[in-house]
Amino acid sequence: MNNIFDSHCHYDDHWFDHDRQAVLDRVLGEGSCVSYVNHAATDTASALFGIECAKKYKNFYTSVGFHPEFANVLPPDWEQKLEELYLAAKATGKLTAIGEIGLDYHYEGYDREKEIEVFEKQLVFAKCKDLPVIVHCRDATADTMELLKKHGSRGVIHCFSGSGETAKEAVDMGFYIGFTGVLAFKNAKKALKALEQVPMDRLLLETDCPYMAPPPYRGQRCESPMIAEVVKVVAQQKGLTTQQVCDMTCDNAKRLYGIHTPE
Ligand SMILES: [Zn+2]
Question: Less crowded by CB within 10 Å, the N or C end of the chain?
Fold first, then answer.
């Protein structure tokens, strides 16, 4: 198995502080089953990390954007900051998307109005720049779908946790659906139902690492090669070989993120 594209990862997480470079060298090095990774930025520092790595590693790509978790604590000039980060990432030639952006209603105390404002402004920004969006949606399906429709957005719903109906609705809107290691969990019934609704040309694989490690690695720090366990599940569900699943999902990520590399 080779040619895995980890479409959504967070190698800036503190869990990688002690051996980040060694991990990235291994994940992106010769003989790895992983061909590409895409860093999902969450704030300014995270976007700058992505930009630095995109310069340093040939197969490391990055998005820029502000996660809903930080909507409350953004500086007043955050929109100007977004423009600066966009320009810096664009200059690397490896900017993939605006993200991760979205709505997270999981925790009490988050300011939903502020989340919606920050999300909408970034949807408009992405549209202006003709970029896809990487959407984070937690316990906020109705509002998220409504805003994506309102702005005619395109992109991926990452770490998909919704129902089969929502998956179908998103696919019908032209969206890609990203699945993590959750798909390989023992009680993944809901995720498998959603997978049924996603045609192979709209499926992306991701770690969302360092979280969501699939079995037999559950509880451990997740790294991109662990996607191989998810590939096995998809291959079985869709009646394909594992290599076909890797190649198709890699092509999908390249298409969505506008990556053109010689074959
Ligand atoms: Zn993420």
Answer: C
